[in-house]
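S1.2 Input.
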Amino acid sequence: METQNVRIRKYLESGKSLTKLEALYQFGCFSLSSRMSNLKKAGLKFDSKLVEITSEGITNRVSRYTIAK
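S1.3 Output.
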């Protein structure tokens, strides 16, 4: 079975982006920032951008991760 780090890396390398809520649904990952820290230490280059997500009238700012170009 692949680790969350491996699955997240493959997901990002496929050209997709990821927020912490998407990581929870896609990979059961409760701490995306920790996974991204591990991937950074492993040499993955990525960008992080703050985005606003609105649900039920509540707006939150979260990081959206993408592979660096």
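S1.4 Remarks. Residues 4-13 form the longest helix (10 residues).
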